[in-house]
């Protein structure tokens, strides 16, 4: 079974530039998550999708971050404009619908903002 | 807001010894999950324990959950150098939304 695919693996941009990350979840997984993990910390949930609808985006900085999940499958996370403090690993995860289900994580995209 | 908090922040042991990590949380939960993260990699799911369960085993891993104390522990028996990683607990209190702690960094010396 293919896992969660993310691209790119690494990205370096200058502050005020824009960047986009892509995620392809495991086939059949209705729930998709984007997490931000700053070095030395645990992952912080940015947004949770159920199919193509947003379940929770309370911690998404909406003035600069946006995410979409077209057709309830792939998802993109965009940052525009980027700030230095956005340097982090952005993790995508997916799970089957329902409570008490395991989340599967991709390898993440390491973003460096200079 | 951070729900789960792991303790200790860092743990260093010799190969063959047991490693115990603890997680405390603040509110009622549906389940608690433990993940492992090797340096520079994604998270790997280890065990999910439901709120009505008290103990689960998976190979060399043993997880306990005490909902009255709002705490969980992860025991790795007969540790190996390959167990060196960061370990995170994640609590699900609301519709699959998991909140992670900042992890315990485990170093197993050969």
Biggest interface, CB < 8 A: A-B, 28 and 26 residues
Structural class by helix and strand composition of chain A:
mainly beta
Identify the overall geometry of chain A: globular
Q: Helical stretch count of chain B?
A: 0
Query: How confident overall, as mean pLDDT of chain A?
Result: 94
Number of helices of chain A: 0
Largest sheet of chain B: 6 strands, mixed
Regions with little confidence, pLDDT below 50 for 5+ residues of chain A: none
- Provide the succession of SSEs of chain B: EEEEEEEEEEE
Tally of extended strands of chain A?
Answer: 11
User: Which oligomerization state do the chains in this entry correspond to?
Assistant: heterodimer
Outline of chain B, from the CA principal axes?
A: globular
What does this structure look like?
The complex is a heterodimer of chains A (114) and B (110). Chain A has 114 residues and is an all-beta fold. Helices cover 0% and strands 48% of the residues of chain A. In chain A, strands 2, 4, 5, 6, 9, 10 and 11 form a seven-stranded mixed beta sheet that branches. Chain A has a four-stranded antiparallel beta sheet with strand order 1-3-8-7, with no helix packed on it. The radius of gyration of chain A is 13 Å and the shape is globular. Chain B has 110 residues and is mainly beta. Helices cover 0% and strands 59% of the residues of chain B. In chain B, strands 2, 4, 5, 9, 10 and 11 form a six-stranded mixed beta sheet that branches. The radius of gyration of chain B is 13 Å and the shape is globular. Chain B starts with a strand and ends with a strand.
């Amino acid at each position: 079974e293919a896992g969660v695919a993310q691209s790119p693996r690494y990205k370096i941009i200058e502050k005020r530039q824009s960047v986009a990350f892509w995620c392809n979840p495991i086939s059949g997984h209705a729930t998709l998550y984007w997490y931000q993990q700053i070095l030395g910390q645990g992952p912080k949930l940015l947004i949770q999708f159920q199919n193509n609808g947003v379940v929770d985006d309370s911690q998404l900085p909406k003035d600069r971050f946006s995410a979409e999940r077209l057709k309830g499958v792939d998802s993109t996370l965009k940052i525009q404009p980027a700030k230095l403090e956005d340097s982090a690993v952005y993790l995508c995860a997916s799970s089957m619908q329902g409570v008490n289900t395991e989340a599967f994580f991709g390898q993440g995209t390491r973003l460096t903002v200079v | 807001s951070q729900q789960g908090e792991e303790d200790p922040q860092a743990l260093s042991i010799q190969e063959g010894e047991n490693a115990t990590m603890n997680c405390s949380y603040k509110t009622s939960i549906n389940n608690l999950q433990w993940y492992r993260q090797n340096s520079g990699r994604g998270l790997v799911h280890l065990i999910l324990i439901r709120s009505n369960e008290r103990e689960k085993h998976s190979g060399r891993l043993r997880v306990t959950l005490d909902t009255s104390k709002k705490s969980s522990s992860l025991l790795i028996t007969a540790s190996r150098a390959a167990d060196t990683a960061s370990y995170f607990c994640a609590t699900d209190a609301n519709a699959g939304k998991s909140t992670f702690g900042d992890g315990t960094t485990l170093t197993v010396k050969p």
